[in-house]
Structure formats: C-alpha cells, structure tokens
Amino acid sequence: MDRRQLLAAGGSLFALTGCANMGMGMGGGSPAGLSPEALARDAEIARAVLPQQTPRAELLQKWTGPYEGVPPWPSVTADKLKVAIVEGIELQRAEVNAIADNPEPPTFANTMVAMQMAGEPLGRALSLFGVMSSNIGSADYQAVQREVSPLLSAASDETTFNARLFARIKAVADGARAAGLTPEQTRIAERSRDSFTRNGAALDAAGKAELGRINSALSSAFTRFGQAVVADENTWTVLTDESQTAGLPASNKAAAAAAARDRDLEGWAIVNTRSSVDPYLSFADDRAMREQVWRKFVNRGDNGNANDTNATIAEIVKLRAERARLLGYDHHAEWRMQDTMAKTPEAAMDLMMRVWEPAKARVAEEVADMRAIAGHDIEPWDYLYYAEKVRKQKYDLDQNELKPYFELNAVKRGAFYMAERLYGYTFTPVPAGSVPVFHPDVEVFEVKDKASGRHIGLFYSDDFARPGKRSGAWMTSYRLGWAYDGGGNQLVSNNNNFIKAEAGQPLLISLDDAETLFHEFGHALHYLSYKVTYPSLGGTPRDYVEYPSQVHEHWVLSRPILDGFMKHVETGQPMPQELVDKIEAASTFNQGYATVSYLSSALVDMDLHTRATPPTDIDAFERESLARYGMPDEIVMRHRLPQFNHLFTSDAYSAGYYSYLWSEVMDADTWAYFEQSGDVFNPEIASKYKAIILAEGNTTDRGEAYRRFRGRDPDVAALLRVRGFPVN
User: Biological process GO terms, please (predicted)?
Assistant: First the structure.
C-alpha cells in the first residue's frame, strides 16, 4: 500500500461513474446484525463440519505468549516456513473437501462460516512468510518463495474449481432471501458466489485445467519480477569526491556516508532506492552525477542483464490476456475491475483524462520557470533540483529549512497523537525483549482505547532500509480479530525505508517523508479500527483502500501536531506559523510534475491492460504509449514498467494504479469536511469517520458508506482546490 500521488477532475465522482447504491445496511447488535449467541451457534456448527486435525509443523501452531499470542519470530527460518506451508496446504485441502462433501443441505453456517475458518494454520504461516520475504528478503527466503508460489496458486485453484463446493456456495447465495439471511450474510454469500464465478468455478474441465496452468505460470512470474527488482535496487552509486556531495543537506550527506560504510566502501553511497535517490536529485549541485544517479534509478529492471524484467512483463501480460479471454472478458482490465468502485476501465480513464491536459499545461509553466533560472533546457535529472530553486525564489521556502522540524521519532509521536485525538487510541512502547521481533530495528507499541483502557492490539514499526528489504513504504497486518469466532486483537505493522543516521545523530526526514509515514499509519488505523464479523468482508475495493490512508496525511501540518511534536531539533521550538504559511502558499507548487509523473504511470497501466493483443516489446510499448498521451520530455513515469512492483508482483494493482486518484477525491472532500467545521480534530466528524469509513471494512457498499458519512457523494471540486487546478 504505497503512498498516494494525486489529483482529479470535475463533477460528482460516483455520479460520473454510475456507481449504484448497493448498500445492504447493518443490523443491530453485532456488526452482522446477529446476537453473540447466534454467532457462537453458527461457529459451533461450522467447527463440527471441519475435520479434527493437529498441525505437526511448528509454524502452523496457534501463536502463544503475551497480548493474546504473538508471532514466534525467533523460531522462524526459511526451511521451517517451507515445511509449514506445504503441510498447511494439505490441512486446508482436507477442510475444504469436508465442507464440499458435507451430506447436510448447504446453509450459511455449515458452508460460508466453515469456509471462513478453513485454512487458519496456513494463514498463520503465510503471515510470517510474507513479512520475512518483504522485510528480510535474504536468498533462502527468495528460494522458498520460488518453490511455494506455484504450490499456493495451485491450492487456490483447487478450491475455486471444486464443483461440489461451488454448488453449495451458489445454493446459499441463491437462496439467501428464502433462508432469511441478514444483509451482511447475504452480501458474503453473493460476493463469494460471484468471486468463484469470476475466477473460473463455472468453467468446464478443460477450461479449469487451462486456467490452472495460467495461474501457476503467473505466480512464478510475479516472484521472478519482484526478486529481480529487489536485486537491482540492492545496488548503489559511489561518490568518491566530496565535491559530488555539494548541495546535499548535512543529514543526507551523513546518511550517504553511513550507507557507504555499511557496504565497506570509501566515500558516500547513493543507494538505488527512492528514499536515497530523490534527495540527491533535489539538492546535489553536480549535474553529471545527478544524471548518473537518475539513470541508474529509472533503469532498474531494464539493463539487459540477469535482473532485466522485460521478458517477464511480456509473459505476465500475455498470460493475463489469455486468462481474461478464457473467463469471457475482453481484456484483463475488464476482468480486474469487476469488484471496484469505478466498475469499468472507461470510468477510470474518464477521470484520469480530464486532468491529464491541465496537468501537462502546468508542467509547461513549471519548466519555463526553471529554464529561466538554469539557462539551459531542463532534463529529467534537473527537474527536482531546479524546482527547489524556483520554490526558494517564488515562496522563499527552502526544503532544508523544514527538515530540522521532522525528526523521525517525533513524527511518529505526532502520528500517535493524531490517533488519540481522532479515535481515542493510545500507543505505549512495549519493553524491548518482552515481545519477539523479526529484526532488532523493529519497535513494538501496545494500542489501547483511552476511554476504557481496553487492549486493542500491537503496532510494529520497522523503519529502516536493509539489503533484501523491498523498497517503498507499506502496511501489513499479522492478525485481525473477527467477531464471528469470538473476536480478538489486531496485530499490524508499518514498514519504511529510511536510511539510518550517523550514530548519536537525529534522523531528519522531509515533509514528504512525514506525510508518507502518516499515510501508512492511516492504513494501520484502518485495520486497528475494524469491527468486522467475517474475514471475507475485511478487504475493501482497490480504489477505496487508499482513501483512509491518504486523508491522514493532512494532519501532519495541523497546528496541534506542529506545536506538540514538530519541534526544531536544535532549538526545541515548534515550527513558526510564518513557515507554515509559506508551506501552504506553496502547497500547489510543482503539482504539474507530481501529477504527470503519477498519472502517466496510471495511464500506461490501463493502456497495457486494455489491449486485446498484449505487446511483446515492453520498452517500445512504454515509449509509444507515452508518446500518444504527449508525455513531457522533462519528466519520467514515477514507476516505469520494468520496475513497476504494483503491477507485476501480483494482480493487486494491475489495471488499478488509477485507484490513488479515485481515492483522493474522497480524501480531499473529507478533509474539507473537517476544515469547514472549524476544527480539524472535530470529535463528531472523527467519530462518524471511525464508525463508518474505518470500522465497517467492506460490510456495505463503500459508495453508500461514503454517502452515510458525508451526506452526499464526494465533491471533486475539493480535490481541484487542494491541487490548485481550475474548478469548472
């Protein structure tokens, strides 16, 4: 769940796309509209269906220890995880077959609730494996990932293709009204039936075999792509002459020196990840070295070596097109967008294209301003550097003037304060050693409800870059408590890639980094707030999931957080209002660049996945697609295809990178709601936001949920105003 990038167009978002009001409503009592006794009775019936199995593998066992059980990180190894995953697949197979072969007539309890329970041991192992693969990523975990990915794909297909199981699910869904199911139970059954259908449950035997082949091949290709990009990011540019660091803020220079020492190098190392590269491109005076650093970064996965991803991308898009045709869709985007708020590629494209031309026009203005200072044409490795010069000239605002106010630990405390003010959560450090962690850098905090003192869960904070860790910033859930089976606490984490400061020195981050931290923390707050009965209604649509995270970025510069936490690292004084005013005056500065770099990636994603005949030459396709859209020469895509993890490490964001834009319409409109109330911590709005937007998960249609929260559809004009685009 990467941090947002921007924008929007005009009109009502939901009206524009024809999103129907499909809300099912919520009953009284439990979130599902059932009494605890009824939920317990259904769970008992479901457990009676499942075979009694005792897992042998250590990493399949229920987690023990404090806080309702915690991940057993000290026991985790790659070999143990492989054993656990293989056994976990077998245990899940037995459970699924027991549900499918149950001689009793299908009911919600003996079929749908039982399916919620199936595979719990495997889920525990996969939670551990996902963390170790993403946050550690050593060769042994990569090897296991290559082995188990096709096994997991095959196991998923085996469940989907189980005709007896599908017949039971379909019977429950089709008979929901006659059986008197609650709206939420009906939603689960119908969504499950439709998902099985979309994923091939209704195909004949030959079709299922072919789809299984495609899915297995995709799973292996996703793994190859992700591991190749990580390998290309685990490289660096070495600066051997101090003159090559001229212009860098002291904190970034020190971090580059530390990165070099960590790699047994002399001088300074600019690691090939965005958190290291962007500061160099923004501040380093050495233009030739900026170009070298830039080229190394934008060519990740595109160097014609063992880590080149172009052939893998061509394989992925070919397989996706074959799958879409097999399932009766014109292309991958049509298949992928069935369960989204936008519903169709056309709706997403309409939103994107309405802002594309104004964004390009703004880029032309920005380039003209920069050229006047530079005295030469602006190349992509110049853009961030001269944008800082223009910012200083136009707004008397220097990004280096801001960094002393954003010390990493203070920013985290500010985020915790935001959560307390808005939602009544407190975050207390857990004593080191009392809870196991997967790396010594990880900090753990206990989350409680302030008013009642009730324990909610644990928050794991993993802030630093390391070899093998994937780039970017993201949120992960280790465990979520579901009401259908008695509930429980939530275990969530945030993962960043900050470069460690010199020993004893404060780690200063940029305003953009601070907003990224609040963004990912917003994802964590979303999951910590869940009051969802059934796991299958835990995941929200792709073009909604970024909304609750994006809106939390706005609180970074709110006065209470600035006064309490964003204090100058040397003077201890909070950021003066004069400086905040400069930031706000410059808030729409460089939005042409930010918009075009993001939106070009989203447009190329949709272009790639709406092709009936997918391209084979990926580099040529990227160039041709950008040329058709009129991509400015001075900017490169935020994520070029050869390193576009969102698209090619899974299906999750494929034909879906537009979702940051879609979500930001709701984000901007929500922030306007708080601001217009006169109190950005307005308790009434915050309470409603927590109850409807965060806590419900996907228990009702999310468009209907927004209307319940805001009283209307989101107003796109709010986003246009935030970004400084004309409102018309």
Answer: proteolysis
Where is 521: in which H helix or E strand?
Answer: helix 511-528
Two tokens, residue 484: 């259908």
* CA quadruple 493, 496, 501, 507: dihedral, nearest 10: -80
How does pLDDT run across 284-328, given as a tens digit for each residue? Answer: 999 999 999 999 999 999 999 999 999 999 999 999 999 999 999
| Site of tokens 């003209």 | 368
How many angstroms separate the CA atoms of 288 and 359, rounded? 28
Beta strand pairing call for 455-464 and 490-498: parallel
Residues 213 and 202: their CA atoms lie apart, in Å, by 17
The SS3 of residue 363 is helix
Tally Cβ neighbours within 10 Å of residue 494: 24
d(CA 301, CA 307) in angstroms, rounded, equals 6
Q: Which one, of 252, 260, 278, lies nearest residue 406 by Cα?
A: 252
State how far the Cα of 562 lies from the Cα of 575, in Å rounded to an integer. Answer: 6
Q: Which tens digit of pLDDT belongs to each residue from 631-650?
A: 999 999 999 999 999 999 99
CA atoms of 244 and 264, how far apart (whole Å): 19
**Residue 352 one-letter amino acid:** M
The pTM assigned to this predicted structure is 0.86
- The domain segmentation of the chain, as residue ranges, is 234-298
Written as six digits, the tokens of 135 are 């946050």
- Which residues are 123's β-sheet partners? none
Distance CA 83, CA 88 (A): 8
Q: Which residues fall within 8 angstroms of residue 90, CB to CB, at 6 or more apart? A: none
At 16 the pLDDT is 29
- Residue 721: is its pLDDT beyond 90? no
CB 370 within 8 A of CB 387: yes
Question: For residue 247, with 0-12 CB atoms within 10 Å meaning exposed, 13-18 middle and 19 or more buried, which class applies?
Answer: middle
Active site residues: 520
Instruction: Determine phi and psi for 588, rounding to 5 degrees.
Output: -95, 5
How many angstroms separate the CA atoms of 522 and 497, rounded? 17
> Which among 111, 148, 94 has a CA at the least distance from the CA of 126?
148
